[in-house]
Amino acid sequence: MDGDIRLWDIASRRTVCQFPGHQGAVQGLAVSTDGRVLVSCGTDSTVRLWGVPVSTLLEEDVSSDKSAPLETYVWKNAFRAVDHQWNFDRFATGGAGVDIWNHNRSAPEQSFEWGTDTVVSIKFNPGQPDILATSASDRSIAIYDLRMGKPAAKFIMRTRTNSISWNPMEPINFTAANEDSNCYSFDSRKLNEAKCVHKDHVSAVMDIDYSPTGREFVTGSYDRTVRIFQYNGGHSREIYHTKRMQRVFCVKFSCDASYVISGSDDTNLRLWKAKASEQLGVLLPREQKKHEYNEAVKNRYKHLPEVKRIVRHRHLPKPVYKAAATLREMTESRRKKHEKRKAHSAPGSIIEEPLRKRKIIKVE
């Protein structure tokens, strides 16, 4: 928020390089596929390109090293999000509209506007580099195809989507982090209903990121927790929280799917294990076999009530526990009200819609 960008070495927990320059909050960061160019944008209406130093284990203290931007592009409106195209030299920014930039040009190559107020999230498709998805503050999610030169599809939900992430192993599917405390997985070919609804958060979901394996994704929420979901699971398999951690605004999976990184309101970055009980470091063959055997036993008997309770049980912070109970009570009350209204209405006058369809207002 202070305009400062830092490159961190996770192993040594120190700053490798510092990229100063933005006059306001930095709203978006994206790195090229080869990892050499960093793109940043912010509320000062500028887009900056930075050269990323080669990763080496430096012995001396380099926290004072500062880097100058390779290019600075000034535009007419503030930016809220940026993402780099896979395997090409283009990147997209979101703000008052969607702009497509090239590393070698100081003005956008293409610009899209589709009646949106502000674009808050933007993501390129990992399988089709010319397709990108955006979410806007008018509760819409839009898919653009750069080859067509115009938007391809758009639908409006009941509440705003804060972030979008494509599944890297199934690039036709994406998951949206929503203000109503749920995440919704969609098939980009069929946008009139969600494939799966992922519940458990008790407040707005602020960010989402898929694991490189495509089997899991991590979410960060306004309720001060980080959760990990299976890609097709309705409930989270893991929850992370600390007493000092405040509202979580950004989360990322590491490229080896072993770690999760979260950034929160208390100005700290936190590194979590993707599997909390996993032993780090080099394992002896006997240890490895022991771990595999334990996992196989848990997987075999996971349907038994006693085992299921132990595997699924997580200690929750008291505010989250109470909010979840209140949320369940409200949901049950709505269900009972709907059942009574249906029982006292003419047959067929009240149409039941599943939650996967109910949250979508219009598809364009």
In what range is the share of β-strand residues? 35-45%
Q: Taking Cα atoms only, what radius of gyration do you get, to the nearest Å?
A: 22 Å
Which class of secondary structure composition applies to the elements? mainly beta
- Portion of residues in helices? 10-25%
- Total individual domains: 2
* Contiguous runs where pLDDT drops below 50 for at least 5 residues: 58-64
Q: How many individual helices?
A: 4
Query: What is the CATH topology of the largest domain?
Result: Methylamine Dehydrogenase, Chain H
Q: Which architecture of the largest domain per CATH?
A: 7 Propeller
Quick recap of the structure?
The chain has 364 residues and is mainly beta. The chain has helices spanning 285-300, 305-312, 318-343, 355-358; strands spanning 5-9, 14-19, 26-31, 37-42, 46-51, 71-74, 81-84, 90-94, 98-102, 110-112, 119-124, 131-136, 140-145, 150-157, 161-166, 173-178, 183-187, 196-198, 205-210, 216-221, 226-230, 236-240, 248-253, 259-264, 269-273, 360-363. It comes from Prunus avium.
What do these coordinates show?
The protein is mainly beta and 364 residues long. The chain has 2 domains: 4-273, 7 Propeller (Methylamine Dehydrogenase, Chain H), CATH 2.130.10; 285-352, no CATH class. The protein has helices at 285-300, 305-312, 318-343, 355-358; strands at residues 5-9, 14-19, 26-31, 37-42, 46-51, 71-74, 81-84, 90-94, 98-102, 110-112, 119-124, 131-136, 140-145, 150-157, 161-166, 173-178, 183-187, 196-198, 205-210, 216-221, 226-230, 236-240, 248-253, 259-264, 269-273, 360-363. It has a 5-stranded antiparallel beta sheet. A hairpin with a 5-residue loop joins β3 (26-31) and β4. The protein is globular, with a radius of gyration of 22 Å. The two termini are 36 Å apart. The model is unreliable at 58-64 (pLDDT under 50). InterPro entries: Sof1, WD40/YVTN_repeat-like_dom_sf, WD40_PAC1, WD40_repeat_dom_sf, WD40_rpt, WD_repeat_DCAF13/WDSOF1. Keywords: Nucleus, Repeat, Ribonucleoprotein, WD repeat. Residues 329-364 are annotated as: Disordered. Belongs to the WD repeat DCAF13/WDSOF1 family.
